[in-house]
Amino acid sequence: MPNDEIPKPLRADAARNRARLLGAARDAFASGQAQVSLESVAKQAGVGIGTLYRHFPTREALVEALYREELAQLCSAAGELLAVDSPERALRRWMDRFADYATVKREMADALRAVFASGAVAVSQSRERLAAAVSVILDAGAAAGTLRADVRAADVVASVVGMCSATALPEDREQLGRMLDLLADAVRREATEANRPA
Predict the structure, then answer these.
(1) What is residue 3's predicted lDDT score, i.e. its pLDDT?
(2) Out of 104-108, 123-127, 156-160, least confident range
(3) For the whole prediction, is pTM greater than 0.90?
(4) How much of the chain is helix, strand and coil, in % rounded to 5?
(5) Are 73 and 26 in contact (CB under 8 A)?
(6) Cβ-count burial of 57 within 10 angstroms (0-12 exposed, 13-18 middle, 19+ buried)?
(7) Which residues contact 88 (CB under 8 A, 6 or more apart)?
């Protein structure tokens, strides 16, 4: 089989190179550069342009891979944050993670449009995955009595997306933090709420 002919060290090297390329691309897009070139990504990753093209034949392929990785990390962050924080704190920290994700996504918007247009990635599926991640936190908070049980995860995601879109400039980050605080407060269940008459 062809796969048996690939030495294990090469597979490990290839995996490391791919990870370095994605890390370099993430940093480049998050830096706010006017135009991120594939050559600069390869240089930052410490590999040749040929290595980049072996992993990512086109700019769109690199952007799609980065988008998928960022989305997967954001979704898995829900459980990771819950493991070390209370649900209400985990939710607020997840919102900050989303803001970081949105910054990277915004910088690669042009290339992402081509990826979405090709059908390689569906926005609706991404939103569903994000809502499922938020549901994990909301369910934990509802069970603990610290987050409202009537809040829909999809509404939280849509609200965070809207806030990030409305505060797209770097100088808006402080305002975004205040807006996310307001949303987190709206989702929190007051301690006295449990004592209110039905």
Answers:
(1) 45
(2) 104-108
(3) no
(4) 80, 0, 20
(5) no
(6) exposed
(7) 141, 146, 147, 184, 187, 188
